Amino acid sequence: MASKKTFIPTPEQLMLSEARKAKKLREANTLLSANLKPDLPAQIISRPWISLESQQELDIKLQRVKIMTWNLLAQCLVRRELFPTSNCLKAGQREGMLHAEILAQEPDIICLQEVDRLERLLPVLEKAGYQSCFASGRGKKHGCLITFKEALYSVVEEQVIYYDDEDVRDHGSEKSRRGSSFYTKNIGFLIALKSKHDTHQGVIIATTHLFWHPKYTYERSRQAGILVREVVKFRAQLGLLEWPILIAGDFNFPPEDPGYSLLVGDPLLAAQAEQVLRSQVIHVSIDPTVPATTPVSVDDEGGEAEAVDPDRVIVNARPSTDEDGLLSIQEILDLFPAESKVRSVYDAGLSKCKYSQIPSYGNRVLLPSGRRGFHEPEYTSYTHYWKSVLDYIFVLDPVDRSSKVTSLLSPHNVDDIRAGLPQKGVCGSDHVSLAADLVWATQTATTPL
């Protein structure tokens, strides 16, 4: 029998084999970096849920919704000078923590703001069983995303609200009908979700990211009024008046702000009215003839990119005149009718909380007696330069059904975030996520919030 010849590859075959091995290694590394082959989960601080109702006492037939809201801090907005104490500003450092925190709470519905890098986020959500809908302001690099468990809901309808294009009057010139002081590119995003388990049930979801500049109180109040008006109209036009409305997002105002009081139905105080009037200016984005007091370089948030001073003042604007058509105080009040007053889920829920050791906003900031907002979380945004409550979950119940908050995701302990967010092992955003469990029944079967 002839002996077998030993195979000796040629130099060309050796090179081809090594090239194939290198290609496989590159492909494996690409899959790993894309999180398609998950590594160890990113570390974040775990936050317990606060139970407000005995689960045994809750009727299993009640409509239930577990909702979460969070401003992710868009990577396109990250600048070192804004977050000098943060140790995780690169996308690769933050994304794992963001994904881990979103999925950890297993919400039915999630409202996210400042969402970019969709190519990284959407596969994570899809793998976890979520269907997503995204919208952004014209020309913006980030936007709002509503995502929901595909096994629970289907989309009936969705709508984007471009605040810059919305009228607040039905008469006068276009400028007067708009009543706008600043072209901000902010939006509201609405979606009607029908239950797959009971097609007679569903929920209307609205999320938003209102204008960020602290001094533009008037414009933010205008945007908040438009949001509530449009979501109520959206529900009515779809013939879904028996469905509850949940409004969750980054409103960029604290509980003592006129915008908050207008939303929840507190009377506008004299000092708040004065705050609105002082902010009634016309920005150069509305009137190009306004002399620029600082070099105009508009960032993706619609404001001057140079305005990094924590005390931020109004620049590149002039006082408004009657011809500009800004709303009077009475017209602003009329934009928030009594039947559209919302209630804050955290303010209502934490007011009943037995865990008195949880600090609230009212423990930190003196609010006038009897005003809503005392029981909001102590902070929902905490960085080196600004520390405030800006994020909320609001509910607007249908006429014949009232809601009850059964549990809340506890706020962060301030000692854990004192270094300033975002921080490795703590939180990947400069905002704190909020989440709540709610149930609805007929008005006679349960008490209001």
TrEMBL record:
Native source organism of the sequence: Crucibulum laeve
Identification of the protein by name: Endonuclease/exonuclease/phosphatase
GO molecular function terms listed in the Swiss-Prot or TrEMBL record: 3'-5'-RNA exonuclease activity; endonuclease activity
SUPFAM superfamilies the UniProt entry points to: DNase I-like
GO BP field: nucleobase-containing compound metabolic process
Organism phylogeny: Eukaryota, Fungi, Dikarya, Basidiomycota, Agaricomycotina
Residue ranges of every copy of the Endonuclease/exonuclease/phosphatase domain listed in the record: 68-431
InterPro entries per record: CCR4/nocturin_mRNA_transcr, Endo/exonu/phosph_ase_sf, Endo/exonuclease/phosphatase
Keywords: Endonuclease, Exonuclease, Hydrolase, Nuclease
Family indicated by similarity: Belongs to the CCR4/nocturin family.
